[in-house]
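Researcher: I'm preparing a figure for a lab meeting and need a structural model of a single chain. I don't have an experimental structure, so a prediction will have to do for now. The sequence is pasted below. Please return the structure as tokens so I can convert it later.
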Amino acid sequence: MKKTFLSLTAAVSAALLVAYTNRTTSVLSGFETGTPEVKSISALAFGPEGVLFIGDSKSASVFAIDTKDAEAVANAKAVEIKNIDQKIAALLGTEAKNITIQDLVVNPLSKKVYCAVQSGSGAPVLLKIDSDNIQPVSMKDIKFSMVALNNAPAEDAKDQRGRPLRVWAISDLNYADGKVMVSGLSNQEFGSTFRSIAFPFTNSQNQSSLEIYHAAHGQYETNSPIKTFTTAELNGKKFLVASYTCTPLVLFPIEDLKTGTHVKGRTVGEFGAGNSPLDIITMKKGEESFLIMANSDRPVMKIKFKDIETYQGALTQPIKENYSTAGVPYVSFPMVNVLQLDKLDDTQFIFLQRRANGDLDVRTSNNRSL
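Model: Understood. Here is the structure written out token by token.
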């Protein structure tokens, strides 16, 4: 009995040690040290422990880098930077016309802003913004991990109009529930693709092809990529909430997005032809949650998640009047020419906006406007 008790005690101790070790293992433990060969920055997203994910369409890969920026800050200071393109251009020794800001994201821990810039030379640049201080993030001799996307479009692949498809290998990027989520195109028959990749990275990745009814076009589509997406729990079930060009809003059950599946989404909104969604975030005010979406040719839109939850139908018929809308209701903000959005903290969000005078500014708004 004593021997059995000791064996049991040892087994319990070992189990507790394993559980403690698993609980305290950093996601950085499998990273290598070196200089990642990032060829482009199509999209950015933050994960745990200050890890920044970089979606690189040119190399059809996702990189995870250790920013060493993991000190938690509860409340963020408002960010207000005028003529940010001119400031970045001066930092890079060029002119504002020679750079493009690809993405703008907030580290949820430190509340610092990270910015992806494409220079006129074609080289991608990663910048960190702390208050009004803008500085390059070195990619030399850092801790990183990477995963190559399966079935990416070939480097020379083109669509029917002769436009390169590889640039759409990654259209948007997000992190939720221990997975990096990637929208874009593949080289498969149905090109519109959603990938879910466990993090820390392994050799496996879930890949589903997507189909939607596009009410503005009056047809089902399988080759147009999601432009921007988020995730949400609706009526107790997790969904991918995705927006496409011209501008359908579509729901996909997360549980259906498994390897080898072809998933038909439910189109719950049509927000106007001739428009492209640019960025999408979720904000809360009190107990109510809102989807906030920036657009190329329409003002910023606010959609109540409760309206999405209560909308039981689906758009399956063409929009009869050009540029009209249908489905879930939305409210237009008095905010136009907004190019990027991200949540700054629980009460604030930042946005990159081209002002009427031509200035490109980063500004902050709060949830009182919701």
